[in-house]
Request: fold
Amino acid sequence: MQSQNSTNIGLDNSAAPRLWVTRHADYLYKYALTRINDQELARDLVQETFLAGLERLQKFEGKSTERTWLTAILKNKIIDVYRKKASAFVNVPGMTSAEQETDDFFEPDAHNWKPNHRPAEFGIEQTDLLESKEFELILQKCLRKLPSLWLSVFTMKHLDDEPTDTICSDLRISPSNFWVIIHRAKLSLRECLQKNWI
Amino acid sequence: MDELTKIAYNCKKATYLIEKQDIGEITLREKLELKIHLAGCRVCRVFQQQSAAINRMIRNMLHRPVDENIKLDDKFKNQLQHLIDEQLDK
Reply:
């Protein structure tokens, strides 16, 4: 039954909401879960997506497939979640100062690396280590350690390849905050990999 | 210190520019500054290689087909189905 369903997807262009759960629930759940690392929240978002879809059923014109249409609704809901995290982050007092954000890594005056934070080669420079299951687990662990907003920004950039302007306006952050977040996230991630892999 | 001497020692700015260049754009002046810095700073050259490798790995990881085993449980699916039927039959 599962395989029969998947061959039907996208072939008809009318909405069939009674079949949504069978046809799209797993797909939408996976989509949400890769972008928001929280099973409970991902389930809620799938449910909200279906409900929002039902409300807007008349607006579905069959121009895109049902799945694309539902995914677009879900994507907006995910961005809402990201945005809430972003506003919590931007509103933290003192955070907006880009200078302070990277001071744990660099000397305050000269701005060169603090000795114990200095990058050293640890094997990822020339060879692709993603083949190594062990390394991938460390990478995932280090990603999970990032504050959720940094992870949101990273995911939007690297998974969906969103232009920087779009990410900034979706998350309502300034471009300079965006670059501070990216810079800081990379410094932390790199250091975490070096510490755990060697 | 003139501006170019400053950038030669400024690893904080250099790593910022490396990130910005990798997924966005930097100005010609910034490119020149970065080049000068990297010519004299081995540590930041290592950072640059690692940073690019990390971006590549994250992209590959995120774009890989998602684990087929990730599925919603049947109980929740049944709830969803009821919810949809209820709304449609209102």
Remarks:
- Chain B has a mean pLDDT of 87.
